[in-house]
């Protein structure tokens, strides 16, 4: 188990390097545009302050460079560790395929439950979008939905464990998950706080780039972990 966990942590670290490149390429331009839009007024009012833009520029460069990499590395390592533990629990109990197939299923289900489904209910918003007074309610609702998504995924997987037919297993599991989460999406509050004046193309660019970065992190972690286990984990 210890070796498996080390391989998971290493896979997450390797994945963070790849994800950093994708984030710099597709994520940061959208974020920069949103920040520029948010700070237009403050920059206009502070135009006579000589070092204002320099300080902000230096902070932004650190945030988009070393800060971004450190953050992605931390998330990637944590994700790799969780993937390793999930793999150790699932193989032979819930999933019976090859190493890569098992890792692929775990990664795909986790990505759907942790990223895609919560994003459908609570899509990410760039700077300048959202009411500061509702941030507490929005955060609570998001994490409640996320926790329910993970719990429902576990329930669905457990419910179909004894079904022999893969087709029936997938249909019943997907039905349980979709039914519970659809009801939760209806019952939990929604927050529609996008200013109509905010550029729609920038909003969707930000959301698409956020999804692309997350997809890269999860996919590359899964691919790296599967390869590492096949290459170095034979004795596990």
TrEMBL record:
InterPro entries the UniProt entry points to: CbtA_put
Membrane among keywords: yes
Residues that span the membrane, as ranges: 68-90, 102-120, 140-159, 171-191, 211-229
Keyword vocabulary terms for this entry: Membrane, Transmembrane, Transmembrane helix
This protein's record includes keyword 4Fe-4S: no
Pfam families: CbtA
Name by which UniProt lists this protein: Putative integral membrane protein
The species this protein was found in: Tropicibacter naphthalenivorans
């Amino acid at each position: 188990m210890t070796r498996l966990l080390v391989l998971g942590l290493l896979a997450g670290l390797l994945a963070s390097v790849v994800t950093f490149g994708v984030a710099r390429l597709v994520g940061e331009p959208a974020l920069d545009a949103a920040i520029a839009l948010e700070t237009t007024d403050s920059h206009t009012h502070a135009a006579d302050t000589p070092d204002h833009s320099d300080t902000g520029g230096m902070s932004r460069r650190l945030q988009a460079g070393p800060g971004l990499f450190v953050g992605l590395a931390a998330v990637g390592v944590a994700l790799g560790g969780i993937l390793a533990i999930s793999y150790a629990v699932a193989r032979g109990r819930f999933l019976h395929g090859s190493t890569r197939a098992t890792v692929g299923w775990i990664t795909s289900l986790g990505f759907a439950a942790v990223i895609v489904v919560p994003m459908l209910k609570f899509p990410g918003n760039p700077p300048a979008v959202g009411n500061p007074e509702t941030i507490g309610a929005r955060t609570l609702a998001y994490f409640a939905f996320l926790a329910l998504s993970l719990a429902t995924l576990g329930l669905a997987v457990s419910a179909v464990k004894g079904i022999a037919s893969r087709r029936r297993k997938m249909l019943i599991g997907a039905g349980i998950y979709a039914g519970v989460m659809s009801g939760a999406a209806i019952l939990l509050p929604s927050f529609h706080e996008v200013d109509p004046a905010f550029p729609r193309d920038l909003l969707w660019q930000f959301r698409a780039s956020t999804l692309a970065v997350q997809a890269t992190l999860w996919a590359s972690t899964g691919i790296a972990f599967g390869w590492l286990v096949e290459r170095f984990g034979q004795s596990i």
